[in-house]
């Protein structure tokens, strides 16, 4: 029956000349199957959407492989441009749009240290480790650029899978740290990967590393500014023109198109589209979302989440199918013992590379936290952060395809071995590490129910705490206080409670200058 179905599909495709349409139709049907199975397994503690999609993709790929007599295992051929241009933007934008900003910015320095400095540490360990250990297991043929590329490929954690494993309501700080690190990590890895591809290895200079780091700082700053600027422009347009009185459809369309435009502009200017669309999502949720009608608020929340969910499922479904790509396995001529040695080396270096920065940087974060604001990253928290970030996903596969294939095809046996090894490592890390992450979180951090103080949009309600009300800065307008005394109080509180101090100053600036121009509830309306 299966054989007849596949033959019918081939005949129909050849007859009509619309093979792509047939392939997309089948893929859409399999996506629907993933959603149904995922719904049935929603309450299962060992499964999540990514694992379900990978397993279904693997099963479908196996069926296609046997039905086509070993000629093919997937419906569509992987294209890194498809991933970066169409699938990744809605995932990252929705992450920024739904993020609880107070938690994210409260842990901003720790997130940046994990996402930037951590990538460079992991990149160094993996690159050096691959160059040293691969020849020892009998795998040679890669050059310096390939080894450096491998360092960036396997330093990119899987933001998508991590977000599905951890629950934002149950472990808000852990979610914020792992999620924030994942976004910055992906952006750093992609920027570093592109910088490595532009290096002329025939004439290396002593200042090459410094130039790469300078380029990264420039890309990070300009990408962030572009994302914030696009978000503010959208908010101003919605507030000034008030689209809602004519059509809520226009409000939703404007927000969606401006978000996508920010990503494409970043790619056009050779910036980091990931960072741009992420900060665009944060700014839109903070300002633009309050300028649209109530219907548009509800609709945008669900539309962005649905697009992100479909893109995530699509990615993992394809990863499962691509594991059985017979062409790459045939091209690879590496011995079985060497292949398993490569798998072991890669997984070992991922474990060591992540541990090398998670635990030391967590200790540093604890040491530099002020006593009055100290919210320590305990050892149990560190173990969960280390474990949750061990998963690798579509970003790693896309970068590997970009480095070692041409339009998804390679004739080089060594490059084919790297591609198949990358797919195996992604499958292993997602299935094994992802499979065990939720039970590990439950074991180390038993759930304690806390009342939800966020609004339906998934953000903090912004209600001031007692410390905000009694905060000395709010009484700085007292005419009896001298300017010198006010300055001393400001400096004292800045050193004693830096995060809280910056937050209060930002709230005052935001309420006084930003929200009257770009929209959003005033502070008095939030209380």
TrEMBL record:
Pfam families membership: Na_H_Exchanger (PF00999)
Catalytic activity field:
Na(+)(in) + H(+)(out) = Na(+)(out) + H(+)(in); K(+)(in) + H(+)(out) = K(+)(out) + H(+)(in)
What protein am I looking at? Sodium/hydrogen exchanger
Give GO cellular component annotations, separated by semicolons.
chloroplast envelope; plasma membrane
Question: Which UniProt keyword terms apply here?
Answer: Antiport, Ion transport, Membrane, Potassium, Potassium transport, Sodium, Sodium transport, Transmembrane, Transmembrane helix, Transport
Q: Source species, please?
A: Rhynchospora breviuscula
Similarity field:
Belongs to the monovalent cation:proton antiporter 1 (CPA1) transporter (TC 2.A.36) family.
One GO molecular function term of this record is: potassium:proton antiporter activity
Task: Indicate how the chain sits in the lipid bilayer.
Answer: Multi-pass membrane protein
Q: Could you give a single Gene Ontology term from the biological process aspect?
A: regulation of intracellular pH
Q: Where is the Cation/H+ exchanger transmembrane domain?
A: 32-442
Q: Where are the bilayer-spanning segments?
A: 20-41, 53-70, 82-99, 111-135, 216-238, 272-290, 302-320, 340-363, 384-404, 416-436
Q: What does this protein do?
A: May function as sodium-coupled metabolite transporter across the chloroplast envelope.
Where found, per UniProt? Membrane; Plastid, Chloroplast envelope
InterPro entries noted in UniProt: Cation/H_exchanger_CPA1 (IPR018422), Cation/H_exchanger_TM (IPR006153), Na+/solute_symporter_sf (IPR038770), NaH_exchanger (IPR004709)
């Amino acid at each position: 029956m299966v054989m007849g179905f596949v033959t019918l599909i081939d005949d129909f495709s050849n007859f009509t000349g619309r093979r792509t349409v047939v392939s997309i139709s089948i893929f859409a049907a399999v996506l629907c199957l993933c959603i149904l199975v995922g719904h049935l397994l929603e309450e299962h503690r060992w499964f999540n959407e990514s694992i379900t999609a990978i397993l279904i993709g693997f099963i479908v790929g196996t069926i296609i492989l046997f039905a086509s007599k070993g000629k093919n295992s997937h419906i569509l051929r992987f294209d890194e441009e498809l991933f970066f241009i169409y699938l990744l933007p809605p995932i990252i934008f929705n992450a920024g749009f739904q993020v609880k900003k107070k938690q994210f910015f409260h842990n901003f320095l720790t997130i940046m240290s994990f996402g930037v400095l951590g990538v460079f540490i992991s990149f160094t360990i993996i690159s050096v480790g691959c160059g040293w250990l691969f020849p020892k297991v009998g795998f040679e043929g890669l050059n310096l650029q390939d080894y450096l590329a491998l360092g960036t490929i396997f330093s990119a954690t899987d933001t998508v899978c991590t977000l599905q494993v951890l629950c934002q309501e149950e472990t808000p700080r852990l979610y914020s740290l792992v999620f924030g690190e994942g976004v910055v990590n992906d952006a750093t890895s992609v920027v570093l990967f592109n910088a490595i591809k532009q290096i002329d290895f025939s004439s290396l200079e002593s200042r090459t590393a410094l130039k790469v780091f300078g380029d990264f700082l420039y890309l990070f700053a300009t990408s962030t500014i572009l994302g914030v600027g696009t978000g503010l422009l959208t908010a101003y347009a919605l507030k000034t023109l008030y689209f809602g009185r004519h059509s809520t459809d226009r409000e939703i369309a404007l927000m969606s198109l401006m978000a996508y435009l920010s990503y494409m502009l970043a790619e056009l200017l050779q910036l980091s589209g990931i960072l741009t669309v992420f900060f665009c999502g944060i700014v839109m949720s903070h300002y633009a979302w309050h300028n649209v009608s109530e219907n548009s608020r509800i609709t945008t929340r669900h539309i962005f989440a649905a697009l992100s969910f479909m893109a995530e499922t699509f990615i993992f479904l394809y990863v499962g199918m691509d594991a059985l790509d017979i062409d790459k396995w045939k091209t690879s001529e590496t011995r079985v013992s060497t292949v398993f040695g490569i798998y072991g080396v890669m997984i070992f270096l991922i474990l060591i590379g992540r541990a090398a920065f998670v635990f030391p940087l967590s200790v540093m974060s604890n040491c530099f936290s002020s006593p009055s604001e100290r919210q320590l990253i305990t050892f149990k928290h560190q173990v969960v952060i280390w474990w949750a970030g061990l998963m690798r996903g579509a970003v790693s596969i896309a970068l590997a395809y970009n480095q070692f294939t041409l339009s998804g095809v390679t004739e080089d046996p060594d490059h084919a071995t790297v591609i198949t090894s990358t797919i195996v490592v992604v499958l292993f890390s997602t299935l094994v590490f992802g499979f065990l992450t939720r039970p590990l979180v439950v074991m180390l951090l038993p759930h304690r129910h806390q009342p939800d103080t966020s609004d339906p949009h998934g953000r903090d309600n912004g209600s001031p705490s007692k410390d905000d009300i009694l905060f000395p800065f709010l009484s700085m307008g007292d005419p009896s206080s001298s300017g010198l005394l006010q300055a001393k109080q400001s400096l004292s509180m800045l050193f004693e409670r830096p995060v809280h101090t910056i937050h209060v100053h930002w709230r005052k600036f935001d309420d006084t200058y930003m929200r009257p121009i770009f929209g959003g509830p005033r502070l008095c309306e939030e209380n």
